[in-house]
Amino acid sequence: MILSIPWLIVAIILYNVIAFSASWPPAGGQTVFDDRLFSLDMISGATWTLTVGDLVTIITLVLLFVEIIKATRTGGSSIVDHGLSTVLFMFCLVEFLVVRQAATSVFFFILTVALIDVIAGFSITIRGARRDFGFGGAQGE
After folding, report:
1. What is the DSSP letter of 138?
2. Domain ranges in the chain?
3. pTM confidence score
4. Is 135 left (phi over 0), alpha (psi -120 to 50) or beta?
5. What share of the chain is helix, strand, coil (3-state, %, to 5)?
6. Phi, psi (degrees; rounded to nearest 5) at 104
7. Where are the extended beta strands (E) located within the chain?
8. Which of 11, 78, 117, 119 is least buried, going by the fewest C-beta atoms within 10 A?
9. If you ran DSSP here, which 8-state letter would residue 5 be given?
């Protein structure tokens, strides 16, 4: 049952911990997600900067990868997984619309990843089920 919990919840919890621990509204229009973690001078002469928001985005993408791998499972637990992912997406959507701290590009990105998780999860499961049970068109699809 614990494997059915969407891992994207980690990104949402991380975002909320960071957003609600910072002062709001942000001073000067910049949020804590715009704070620089570090910079690297590149060979080209440019400077690459990693921000808090970038790090949260990277973590979210890694968790999306885990969710897509989980979607390839078949069985009863995958139905629970998809249901919980859908509930998580709806939670994100409501939070984005009503919570001031969630009205950022970083959270919108997390919301979009949650939507992709829902769509990809159902699509991969349906595709896998069609292949497992031999439904669909010609062989070799």
Report:
1. S
2. 2-18+41-133
3. 0.85
4. beta
5. 70, 10, 25
6. -130, 165
7. 36-41, 47-51
8. 119
9. S
The pair of three-digit structure tokens given for residue 77, joined into one six-digit string: 């637990």
Distances (CA, A) of 127 to 1, 64, 118, 130, 131: 23, 19, 14, 5, 6
Q: How many CB atoms lie within 10 A of CB 110?
A: 26
Record the tokens describing residue 32, joined without a space. Answer: 């804590």
Q: Is the dihedral of CA 109, 93, 102, 122 positive or negative?
A: negative
